[in-house]
Amino acid sequence: METLPHCETLLLEKQGPALHITINRPDSRNAMSLQMVAELSAIFTEVESDSSIRAVIIRGSGGHFCAGGDIKDMAGARNQKAGEGEADPFYRLNRAFGQMIQQVNESSKVVVAVTEGAVMGGGFGLVCVSDVAIAGPTAKFGMPETSLGIIPAQIAPFVVERIGLTQARRLSLLGLRIGAEEACALGIVHQAASSDTELDDMLAHALERVRHCAPNATAETKALLHRVGHESMSGLLDSAAEMFTAAVRGSEGTEGTMAFMQKRPPAWADTK
Question: What InterPro entries does the annotation carry (predicted)?
Answer without folding.
Answer: ClpP/crotonase-like_dom_sf (IPR029045), Enoyl-CoA_hydra/iso (IPR001753), Enoyl-CoA_hydra_C (IPR014748), Enoyl-CoA_Hydratase/Isomerase (IPR051683)
